[in-house]
Design a protein that fits this description.
The protein is built from 4 helices and 11 strands; from the N terminus they run βββαβαββββαββαβ. Strands 3-2-1-4-5-11 form a 6-stranded mixed β-sheet. The chain has a 5-stranded mixed β-sheet with strand order 8-7-6-9-10. The radius of gyration is 17 Å and the shape is globular. The relative contact order is 0.21. The protein has helices at about 40-50, 65-80, 130-135, 160-165; strands spanning about 1-5, 10-20, 20-30, 55-60, 85-90, 100-105, 110-115, 120-130, 145, 155, 170. The longest helix has 17 residues, at about 65-80. The protein is an alpha/beta fold and about 190 residues long. Helix 2 (about 65-80) links the parallel strand 4 (about 55-60) and strand 5. The chain has 2 domains: about 1-90 and about 160-170, Nucleotidyltransferase, domain 5 (2-Layer Sandwich); about 95-155, Nucleotidyltransferase, domain 5 (2-Layer Sandwich).
């Protein structure tokens, strides 16, 4: 089975081709604020090399609003045009370690924390105070983050990888972006 995997939830994006469960090719690129146009350059290369994938997987976040929306729309378009199956995979499962934590800044003095083992959530991304996160970490278990966290200087700053996401279990059907908080909408004040 040929798979094209796309991941654009943070500052570094990636596109991968997997052939029969093995990573065949990986492209990494800068994806500032989810507005990187390199996604389409590398996706075009992947389609030329892969031909017609049987599956297109895409990271569903949490992460950059623009990056998630763009990559999910691109994955949908490729799957539809190539008659491939479409699937979403939580971006936080895109790290290569048997067990790990992923922590990140959720703003407003909140962090998120997820605990992953063997490519599955032991605890899904949940909001905590920074102090609570520090108390939940297990010594010796790696911690990943997509941007440096001042109170976690030993965390590894790294982006999730499309090549790893393409190997994970997935949810079939239209991928839906994962958000940590409900949308904040400021209603206009009319007189």
């Amino acid at each position: 089975m040929n798979v094209i995997a796309i991941e654009c939830s943070c500052r570094q994006g990636s596109v991968a081709i997997l052939e029969d469960g093995t990573l065949a090719k990986l492209w990494k690129f800068e994806n500032p604020r989810g507005r990187g146009t390199e996604l389409f350059t590398h996706l075009e290369s992947a389609l030329r090399e892969c031909g017609n994938p049987s599956l297109v997987t895409v990271g569903t976040g949490p992460g950059s609003y623009n990056g998630l929306r763009t990559s999910i729309a691109a994955a949908w378009g490729v799957a539809r045009a190539r008659s491939a199956q479409l699937a979403g995979v939580p971006s936080l499962l895109g790290y290569d370690a048997p067990e790990y934590f992923v922590a990140g800044d959720a703003r407003a003095n909140q962090w998120f924390l997820a605990h992953v083992e063997n490519g599955k959530f032991l605890s899904p991304p949940t909001l905590y105070s920074p102090q609570e996160v520090l108390g939940l970490l297990k010594p010796g278990t790696p911690v990943f983050t997509t941007s440096g966290l001042e109170d976690l200087p030993d965390a590894t700053v790294a982006a999730p990888c499309a090549g790893i996401l393409g190997l994970r279990d997935f949810a079939e059907g239209q991928p839906v972006p994962a958000y940590l908080k409900p949308p904040h909408i400021t209603k206009p004040k009319f007189r």
